[in-house]
Write a structure and sequence with these properties.
With 487 residues, this protein is an alpha+beta fold. The protein contains eleven helices and 18 strands.
Length: 487
C-alpha cells in the first residue's frame, strides 16, 4: 500500500480523535470544583436577620442567598444576602407565566417556530415539541411549570410578546415597574447568560404576583401531567416534575401552595416556593444550592416561619404616640360634637409579629410613598427597625364631602406627626383645635394692629405739638424784630 495514501487517510482520523479527546483531557487536567465543600462553607455566611434585636434566630442554610417573606405584608422574616445578584435558572419562568397569564387566554393556541425550538441547547430541559406544532396556553403553563420546558417558554414569549426579544422587554419593564434594582432578564426560560440575573429579594417580589394567581400556583404544585396526541401535536407526552416538595415525592411538604425549580451549571440549584398554614402565607427563595438541600433548606425555613411568627390584623389594636403636633390628628370632641374622621386606616391590613412580641412593641411612622392611588399616605409598622407590615391611610368617602367646595385635600409636607390610632380604624382631625388656632391667630393680628395704630397716633400728636411750638417761636421772633426796626 502506498505510504502517502495511508498518511492522507490517517491525518483526518487523527484530527477527529484529537477533537473528541481534547475536552476530556482538559477536564482531567483541571480539578473539578468540590461543590459539597463550597456548600458547607456557605453555611457560615452571615444571616442578616439574625442581627435584629430580639428577632427569632433563623437556621443555617447552605444557599448563597435565601429569603423568607410573608406574602400579604411583604415582611421579611429571614434574610441572607438577599440583594446579591445571582443566576435564577428556570425560576425565571415564574415571571414568564405571570406575564403570559395577564396577557392571554387559556384557550389561546401557541404555535412553535423553528427558532423557539432549536435555540434550546441539546442538554436544556424540553418536552419534545417540534417546529410547527401547537398546544393550548394552559398546556403551555403545564409544560413550563411541571416540565420546565425551555422551548415552550420560548413559544409563549413569541406568542405574547410578538417575539422573544419583545417579551424580554415586557419582563424588564415589569422589573422596572416594581422598582427591583438587582434583576435583569435576557430570555424567557432562564438559560445561562452573564446579563441574566436576579436577587433573592427581587425574585420573592416577583413570586408574590405569581402565587397570587391560583391557577398558576396549582399547576406549579402538580407532580405529573399527560398530553395526548392532537392534530396539531402528534405525540403522547408524559411530563413529570423534578420538584421533591410535591405530593408523593421524597420531601413532600403538606402546606405547599406552589413551587418552581431551577438549575444550570453556573446557577446551581435554585428554588422558589410558597406555603400556607394557619392563615399565614410564606414565600421562600433559595439561590445557589446543591441537591437535595434546596428542598430541605426550604422546609427548614418554612418551619422557622410558621413556628416563630403569627399574622395579626391591625383592627381594634390600641396605638398611641408622643408628638408635639399629634393633637392635630388625635381623637377628641369639637364644637360640632365628635371629631370629623376624614381619614381612616385600612383595617383589613395585617402585620407579622414574632411570637415573643406584642402589638405594643411596634413603632409606626407615616410615609407618602404608596402605590395605592386611593390612599393619601401609608402607616409603616416596625419591630426594632424591621418592617412587619403596612396600612394604607385612606380618605373617608362619607366625610370628605365637607371639604369638596374647598378644593382638594392634600398632605402639606412630610413633617407630619405620628398618628394616634385609638380604635385601630380611624385617624381624626380635631375641628376644635383648628378653630381655636384660627381664633388665636385673629386675636394676635388684631392686637398687633391696635398697638401699631396707637403708636402711629402717638407719633402724630408729638409731631403736632412740635409744629405748634415752632410756630409760636416764629411769631415771637417776628414780633421782636418788628419792634426793634421801629426804634
Amino acid at each position: 500500500m502506498n505510504l502517502k495514501k495511508v498518511l492522507y487517510k490517517l491525518i483526518p482520523l487523527t484530527f477527529s480523535v484529537a477533537l473528541v479527546l481534547t475536552p476530556a483531557l482538559h477536564a482531567l487536567a483541571d480539578d473539578p470544583p468540590d461543590y459539597d465543600a463550597l456548600a458547607e462553607a456557605r453555611k457560615g455566611l452571615p444571616i442578616q436577620s439574625n442581627s435584629i434585636a430580639d428577632w427569632p434566630q433563623g437556621p443555617e442554610v447552605s444557599a448563597q442567598a435565601a429569603i423568607l417573606m410573608e406574602a400579604d405584608t411583604g415582611a421579611i422574616l429571614y434574610a441572607k444576602n438577599i440583594d446579591e445578584r445571582l443566576y435564577p435558572a428556570s425560576t425565571t419562568k415564574i415571571l414568564t407565566c405571570t406575564l403570559a397569564y395577564e396577557n392571554s387566554d387559556l384557550t389561546d393556541i401557541v404555535k412553535f417556530s423553528s427558532e423557539a425550538v432549536k435555540s434550546v441547547p441539546w442538554d436544556g430541559s424540553k418536552i419534545g415539541i417540534d417546529p410547527g406544532e401547537a398546544i393550548t396556553m394552559q398546556q403551555a403553563y403545564e409544560a413550563i411549570l411541571i416540565g420546565s420546558a425551555n422551548e415552550v417558554a420560548n413559544g409563549v414569549a413569541e406568542h405574547v410578546g410578538g417575539s422573544m426579544e419583545g417579551f424580554v422587554d415586557m419582563m424588564n419593564r415589569r422589573v422596572a415597574d416594581l422598582g427591583l434594582q438587582n434583576t435583569h432578564f435576557v430570555n424567557a426560560n432562564g438559560l445561562y447568560d452573564d446579563n441574566h440575573y436576579t436577587s433573592a429579594y427581587d425574585l420573592a417580589i416577583l413570586a408574590r404576583d405569581f402565587f397570587s394567581y391560583d391557577m398558576l400556583a396549582k399547576i406549579s404544585r402538580t407532580p405529573k401531567v399527560e398530553f395526548t396526541a392532537t392534530p396539531t401535536q402528534k405525540d403522547d407526552i408524559t411530563i413529570s416534575s423534578k420538584n421533591l416538595l410535591l405530593d408523593g415525592r421524597k420531601y413532600h411538604y403538606d402546606y405547599i401552595v406552589g413551587s418552581k425549580t431551577g438549575y444550570t451549571d453556573k446557577a446551581r440549584q435554585t428554588l422558589v416556593s410558597c406555603a400556607k398554614k394557619d392563615g399565614m402565607e410564606l414565600i421562600c427563595v433559595v439561590l445557589m444550592e446543591e441537591s437535595p438541600t434546596q428542598f430541605t433548606d426550604t422546609i427548614a425555613l418554612f418551619e422557622y416561619g410558621f413556628n416563630n411568627f403569627t399574622i395579626e390584623s391591625i383592627k381594634g389594636k390600641e396605638f398611641s404616640f408622643d408628638s408635639d403636633k399629634s393633637g392635630f390628628f388625635k381623637t377628641g370632641t369639637d364644637i360640632f360634637g365628635d371629631s370629623v374622621d376624614i381619614l381612616k386606616l385600612n383595617d383589613n391590613a395585617n402585620i407579622v409579629l414574632p411570637n415573643n412580641a406584642t402589638f405594643d412593641d411596634l413603632t409606626m411612622s407615616v410615609v407618602y410613598d404608596t402605590a395605592n392611588e386611593n390612599a393619601v399616605a401609608k402607616a409603616v409598622y416596625s419591630y426594632n427597625s424591621n418592617v412587619v407590615g403596612y396600612a394604607d391611610i385612606m380618605l373617608n368617602a362619607q366625610k370628605t364631602t365637607l371639604f369638596e367646595q374647598g378644593g382638594t385635600l392634600e398632605a402639606a409636607s412630610e413633617d407630619v406627626p405620628y398618628i394616634s390610632n385609638k380604635d385601630g380604624k380611624s385617624v381624626f382631625v380635631n375641628i376644635k383645635i383648628i378653630l381655636i388656632s384660627l381664633v388665636a391667630l385673629v386675636v394676635l393680628v388684631t392686637a398687633v394692629l391696635l398697638i401699631y395704630r396707637k403708636l402711629v397716633m402717638a407719633k402724630r400728636e408729638i409731631k403736632k405739638k412740635v409744629v405748634k411750638k415752632n410756630r409760636e417761636k416764629e411769631r415771637f421772633y417776628r414780633s421782636s424784630n418788628h419792634h426793634n426796626f421801629k426804634l
